[in-house]
Design a protein that fits this description.
single chain; about 70 residues; mainly alpha; 2 domains
Length: about 70
């Protein structure tokens, strides 16, 4: 898991560099959760829940703010 997390952080750095080079504003975040973590009723493989309430609330809050700003 740590190797995967390090790869994600490295990829996000490259993505930030690409946006900067293109002079495009962007916010890139890597959340400390598994894939599917924003959906409360996501099936739990092996009985281990994926949903991460604090991270999901943070992500949904940012998404709603983005929609409000973009669709205003």
């Amino acid at each position: 898991m740590a190797r995967s997390r390090n790869r994600l952080h490295a990829s996000s750095g490259k993505l930030k560099e690409a946006f900067a080079a293109a002079k495009v504003s962007a916010e890139i975040e890597v959340y400390s959760a598994q894939h599917g973590w924003c959906v409360p009723d996501m099936p739990a493989p092996g009985g281990v829940p994926i949903y991460n309430k604090p991270e999901a609330e943070r992500a949904w809050g940012k998404l709603v703010a983005l929609y409000k700003a973009a669709l205003a």
